[in-house]
Amino acid sequence: MTELGSRYDEAFLFAHDLHRQQRRKGSEVPYISHLMAVSALVIENGGSEAQAIAALLHDAAEDQGGAATLEEVRRRFGDVVAAIVADCTDSWVEPKPPWRARKEAYLGALAKKPATSLLVSLADKTHNAEAILFDLRAIGAPLWDRFTGGRAGSLWYYGELAASFGELLPGPLAARLGRAVAAMTAEAAA
């Protein structure tokens, strides 16, 4: 059983401060809800406190300050958490490189990442896929306008993620991602 202590509390507050003004794509939902969901998935799938903290902070460097924010994560929460956050980051610069190239690079690097990082990334992608599926069912095809990759790119990316995680970290969470992606693909084709 994962025990969560005061470090987790501090990480939650830090994540909330970093992302306070951020919303989920195309909605008014506070971004912290995504970070909470990803952390919950990590905990529910046997992750450690360090992984649960990294889940709260997995977008900190990418969305809120790059390398300087990663160093703050390292200072506050240690090398293990910072390494996981770095492994979940697909861009260190603004403006970000072209979408397709970034996603291909991320996919290509997955096999080299440790299982500790893969669990956090898998939880992130699972929550994203389930949120996309939910919104697709609620608003239909206009949903794809939210995403740089559009319909075709998003379906390609999530299909590749599901296949990769099915091989790299098989288990209930990878299967859950696979089901969400299959349902998303079916809904998009309808």
Describe this structure in words.
With 190 residues, this protein is mainly alpha-helical. The protein has helices at residues 6-19, 32-44, 49-57, 60-63, 66-77, 79-88, 99-109, 115-139, 150-168, 172-189. It starts with 5 loop residues before the first helix and ends with a helix.
Structural class: mainly alpha
What's the number of helices?
A: 10
DSSP helix fraction: over 70%
Average pLDDT rating? 93
Determine Rg (CA atoms, Å): 16 Å
- Tell how many strands the DSSP assignment holds: 0
Question: Can you identify the CATH class?
Answer: Mainly Alpha
Major sheet characteristics:
none
Kindly identify the CATH topology: Hypothetical protein af1432
CATH superfamily: Hypothetical protein af1432
**Strand portion, in percent?**
under 5%
Distance between the termini: 42 Å
User: Element order, helices and strands?
Assistant: HHHHHHHHHH
What is the number of domains? 1
What is the correct CATH architecture?
Orthogonal Bundle
List low-confidence stretches: none
Given the C-alpha coordinates, what overall shape results? globular
Write a short abstract of this structure:
The protein is mostly helical and 190 residues long.
Can you give keywords for this protein?
mainly alpha, Hypothetical protein af1432, 190 residues, globular
Can you lay out the helices and strands and say which pair or pack?
Blueprint: H1 6-19, H2 32-44, H3 49-57, H4 60-63, H5 66-77, H6 79-88, H7 99-109, H8 115-139, H9 150-168, H10 172-189
